[in-house]
């Protein structure tokens, strides 16, 4: 019997040793997991993408609605008392604004309280609030327009311990963990109380997790309510407390806690939640707002102020009562907070990725220089060239104009794309990949390659001008048949199915005569035209078939925009860009995307061509643009239409902007519209809304003007190439003409009578 007892004891001892060893190994594994997480990178931080900052200065064209829209986009809030950063108050045409701190590549720009007065559709005066000091310029910190996530789809605004408001910390501890600074990770009294309640109920009905346990669960464990998970949670809490300071744990908790959902993006941490729900920095939260956020910890979905405002108010009241009982707020503060509505919390900063088509372009450019994991996890800050004012007009008028066109023509399933850039520096101000601007999907602006039709013709005529042709050089607009080896005979035609004989070069371009363009292109050489197109910005290899002269090359709207940018920049090639700078998470400047310029064409030739492109608008295929903009704007541009009316194009530039519009169908079936009937109206509506500035071409010193067409037209010529003056018409006795005219009218009267 004694022997059996000894064997049993030995077995139990061995089992305990094995269990202890297994437990010890398990604890070591958990310890390693904790150290790797906390000593490494705690969070995968998405790259944050920003629009351009709004620079305000006297004379800037801006009305009150435009300014208010910009402020709302940037997450500013209307307050009756404008004291904290990110607040503004509008009084008719006057705005009191408190800007926010923002770290630019040039350094930190501190918050400032200013008063902006608008008058006559422009900024009138900017003063430092409460003073008479006028300011020449202020910058509103840029709107955050999106981010690039890793697989977690989490967002957070990291804060350090000193940035956590004292009232928030005390409220958090009073509600969630009163013994935080005295326990070692586990509050045993709370555990026993919860264990007794759960045993009596026969299920898990009560929890007693400390902040440290909650942090361990959020970082490493699931939400599954099992005994094993609870044991692991307790062990990890003890290990966390053993390795790290209380304030480190508290700060990690404040940055990790889940507090809501914005679409597929989880809102983590008090810093981001403060911006998301209240458009405020955490330091600027009021008593009721702190109470709401702390109350939401228990259940962000259940206490969501957007979906369950009544329940949210009740939970907030519970937290406010706790704050009052612990002496964190006095009675007047308590009463005031209890009476505050949830209005500010229901007007949430929705739509973190506001302009998906533009973000596609930003991502496309960045992936050429950064690894995907760097974009998704290192917290880069990307400042872009997006101008929200321009983007809003593009989004509005692309869909609105095409909807109207469909209603009036019976055409359906029309789609479109738009690219708008700054004429002077090539910055991409707006980009639309389709009629549904806020829906992610196929981005036609950067991915849809379509034949560009007559948009290629400026390359043909620029090549001719570089070979000594003038705007008045005669071009033969007559039928031609071309036989390529292994292909059918090609017989191009004009859009009107007519031949126009000998026409001046500038009119052949203005009226987009196909036959004249083919004859001219063959005379000067297709290979030469392709070389010109490449200098303008055409990329990729193209075959030197004659059909290239009529635009069989397939390009995206973005690629077309790059080609026309060289024309708009008067012969200077400058790579278009959508990013101005990239900063690291610590605000260090990683790269600045500066202006790069290369002169590729003589100014005289470009001036002649751009003048001809102005005639496209004044008396050519784009003359209907006069319905949208006055002739005094002197816009330069070109329409484009492809075979069977499948694609409608218009590319043109004003004094300040270049815009390219494509309209067609995704299935590549005939759209039944031309460049002048679809793409041009979209272009016109957008540029009218943007108050396009008149185009004033830079005239080289070697340009001479001459009157042609019997003196009815004035055209520029490179000095020495201008035509001889028209012969002088002899003077005629006006009295003789008058007598002859009277005789004719008298004869007509007798015939009628």
Compute the average pLDDT: 87
Largest sheet: 5 strands, mixed
Helix content: 40-55%
Integer-rounded radius of gyration: 35 Å
The DSSP helix count reads 24
- Which spans have pLDDT < 50 for at least 5 consecutive residues? 203-207, 728-753
Strand content: 15-25%
Termini gap? 152 Å
Strand order of the largest sheet: 11-1-15-25-26
Describe the overall structure.
By secondary structure, the chain is an alpha+beta fold. The strands form eleven sheets. Strands 11-1-15-25-26 form a five-stranded mixed beta sheet. Strand 31 and strand 32 form a beta hairpin. Helix 3 (166-176) packs parallel to helix 9 (287-296). The longest helix is centred in the N-terminal third of the chain and has 38 residues, at 2-39. It is elongated, with a radius of gyration of 35 Å. It starts with a helix and ends with a helix. The model is unreliable at 203-207 and 728-753 (pLDDT under 50).
Task: Briefly summarize what is shown.
By secondary structure, the protein is α+β, with helices and mostly antiparallel strands. 41% of the residues lie in helices and 18% in strands. A hairpin with a 5-residue loop joins strand 16 and strand 17 (428-432).
